[in-house]
Design goal:
It is a single chain. This protein is mainly alpha-helical. Helices cover 84% and strands 0% of the residues. α1 runs antiparallel to α2 and α2 packs antiparallel against α3. One of its GO terms (cellular component) is ribonucleoprotein complex. This is Small ribosomal subunit protein bS20. It comes from Candidatus Beckwithbacteria bacterium CG23_combo_of_CG06-09_8_20_14_all_47_9.
């Protein structure tokens, strides 16, 4: 466990960010599964939005988001 005051604060921030990032990661995975299952325009649009947000917050790499979106479009068309 951290001893320095700044290290204690850093640990607190890191744990909070870890929870937020896990929620975003779970959200984009669920959106992808839904888009693949439903194959509807609305589901694909929602998945695009969620992937873009995850890439913007650097949860996933922007090229990975682009690749996943490209694959979704191929499935949908």
């Amino acid at each position: 466990m951290p001893i320095l005051k700044s290290a204690i604060k850093k640990l607190k921030v890191d744990r909070r960010r870890e929870k937020e990032n896990a929620a975003i990661r779970q959200n984009y995975k669920e959106a992808l599964k839904a888009a693949r299952a439903k194959k509807s325009a609305a589901a694909v649009t929602k998945a695009f939005s969620v992937l873009d947000r995850a890439a913007k917050k650097k949860i996933i790499h922007k090229n990975r988001a682009s690749r996943l979106k490209s694959r979704l479009v191929r499935i949908y068309t």
